[in-house]
Amino acid sequence: MSKKYIEIYKKIKKFHKNITVDGDKSISIRWALLASQSLGISKAKNLLKSEDVVNTLKCLKQLGVNIVSKKNTCLIYGLGINGFKYKSNITLNAGNSGTLGRLILPLLIKSPYKIKIVGDKSLSKRDFSRVMTPLKEMGVNFYPKNKSTLPIYIKGSEYLRPITYMEKKGSAQCKSCVMLSSLNVPGDTIIKAKKSRDHTERMFKNLKLPIKLNKSKNFDYIKLSSPKRINKLNMTIPGDISSAAFFIVLTILSDNSKIVLKNININSSRIGIIKILKKMGAKIKLKNIKIQNGEKVSDIFVKSTKNLRGINCPTSLNSSAIDEFLIIFLVAAKAKGISYFKNLSELNQKESPRLKIATRILKLMNVKVKANENSIVIFGNPKLNLKKKIIIDNYLKDHRIMMMSVISALSFGGVWKIFDPDSVKTSFPSFLGIIKKLGANIK
Ligand code: S3P
Q1: Those residues with Cβ within 8 angstroms of residue 228's Cβ, 6 or more apart along the chain or in another chain
Q2: Pairing of the two strands 188-194 and 164-167
Q3: Domain of 14: which CATH number?
Q4: Global pTM exceeds 0.90
Q5: 26 lines ligand 1 (CB under 6 A)
Q6: Is 323 a catalytic residue?
Q7: Residue 227 predicted with pLDDT over 80
Q8: 176 CB less than 6 Å from ligand 1?
Q9: Which one, 176, 262, 314, 424, has least CB within 10 Å?
Q10: Which structural domain, as residue segments, surrounds residue 64?
Q11: Residue 183, in any domain of the structure
């Protein structure tokens, strides 16, 4: 069977549009997992309908949870903490999702049976020891012993102990895995975590679960104890800033264009991209700010920007822009001056080794770059205009690499052939539809 691809021959013409993007992925997955542990019927509006979320719902259904999806609403009939009902010998497939693979484990730590966890080719390359190590310390068993990638088996324990956990990578998945384990572990779970997205903390607070939070400049201190029960959680899921990011950058890099992105989550632990692009001179404004179910939401107004400047990107912004660097690199490619991005080794731990693949793509685009495992220097060229043919293939079907390539083609020209376009279904199924609505020509 021949592989699917799209072709883009032309830059996008000027556009003025109001758009919405799909619901936030991190919030959608967390909502579903927590709703499954509640006693009651939880309702979400605008839940993301991407493959990562569909796989989350499939896993929960296999664990005995009743889920009803209608139009724009999803109902989850929670079974209570550790209330899953399932037979021995089940296999849960996390697909492409690190968040699902890592955050489902803490809900299984009392399982009397071995449960097999599998994932796709990309997820099977990713490190699970980062979450297995703290869970093992609590008394959870993993098989085969000493394996740190999927497939693995998890078997719970009746005798779990609370731990004090130090999270040094700035990984919200590691932090949230330990946080969710506190639902099942007696006593106090204590976490010192390098700053990372805090949706789990916000949901715990919203649910009035026992959580104490203290913040310092670089670290958050979290104390949790096991609750008696979890009440239902009703939410309207805001638009995903990580999806909005592609349109923010497309607008900045296109001529005479404007966009309004409606109802986007602007949680301060997620808006590194806005801070970084503003430092580079981009015209971005946040309007109609409100709080919705414990999360900050706003409309984002963006205009084309001519005089972009290079940036020495503060590493303190890394975690709040971790999924957006690919697209930020495109702005650096067009900025006047040299841009420096450091301490980014975590980028190579994502759905694909993103720092390596982005370097490869920038070089194909004739952008001068110097990169190693940890950092990248981009020599910007305000006149960047491509005439060559560029083929994007063999990128482990990483959804964000695919979307970065489309934005690059529409912003810088050239003839692009991009394989595996269905990869966007992981996080942003409406991506190509919106791109076409803005007037892009895609075959
Ligand atoms: C996520 C955390 C981040 C991010 C991922 C989603 C989450 O991963 O890259 O897309 O929902 O917690 P890390 O925790 O590995 O940094």
Answers
A1: none
A2: parallel
A3: 3.65.10.10
A4: yes
A5: yes
A6: yes
A7: yes
A8: yes
A9: 314
A10: 25-228
A11: yes
